Amino acid sequence: METQTATATQTRSSGENARDRFIRKTRELFAKETDLDKRWNGLRPVLAELLSDPDMIEASKKWPDCVPANGRAENLLFYEDPDYGFAINGLTKGQARQGVAARIHDHAHIYTLYGVIDGHEKVVRYDRLDDRSKPQYAQIKEAENVLCGPGDIDLVKPYEIHTELTVGERTVAVIIRSQKGGDFNQGRYNPETNEYYESLGPRQTPCDMMAK
Asked: Rounded distance, CA 102 to CA 121, Å?
């Protein structure tokens, strides 16, 4: 406990908040680790530290709800790195999102680390069964369905198929992407009809991550 207090005091005196510390540690990791799978698995404990930071948790309570519009989801944009390209997003799902079916999708070519700060939701993964030879067709099957809560982290690799489902309570998450979304198409899947199509990813709304 004394060590944690000393560390927190040192961080405050240096002017480095939870966001700044996460960015610094992520840049350090990316500078020394070029293997993408090792890089993104190595980022798990760095994100876990961010998710457990009391100041960050308190700030997240004030983040605005993300509202889909014009067929696109919305993410809060906290940071985009000028050198390594990674982006820090927030995703809040309030009352308006409860009971609304989420699209099954992939993130195209990017890596994504998804960490829950508050609330609970189900993370559902899918396997693709067809040989990808037919355009606008994809046969998928549910492979995993896990209830996630505060501190849980999910790594989504390129083209992995998944969705997140609300369970009747507000949820808040931090999302770290290898590239800011919204400027390229992502895959969309309908298991009832086997339809596959692509569309742009989430709209990006700039927001102050640590606003008091």
From this structure: 12
Is residue 211 in some structural domain? no
Copy the structure tokens of residue 106. Answer: 């992939």
Sign of CA dihedral 119, 144, 114, 52: positive
Residue 184 counted as domain residue: yes
Q: What does residue 15 show for φ and ψ, rounded to 5 degrees?
A: 80, 10
* pLDDT, averaged across the chain: 92
User: Is 101 contained in some domain?
Assistant: yes
Q: What is the pLDDT of residues 42-90, one digit of tens each?
A: 999 999 999 999 999 999 999 999 998 888 999 999 999 999 999 999 9
Pair type for strands 171-177 and 87-93 = antiparallel
* pTM, rounded to two decimals: 0.90
If one counts the domains in the chain, the total is 1
List, edge to edge, every strand of the sheet that includes 74-80.
Answer: 153-156, 112-118, 171-177, 87-93, 74-80, 203-206
Cα 61 to Cα 202: distance, rounded to the nearest angstrom = 21
Residue 82 included in any domain: yes
Domain residue limits at 96: 2-206
CA distance 206 to 210: 12
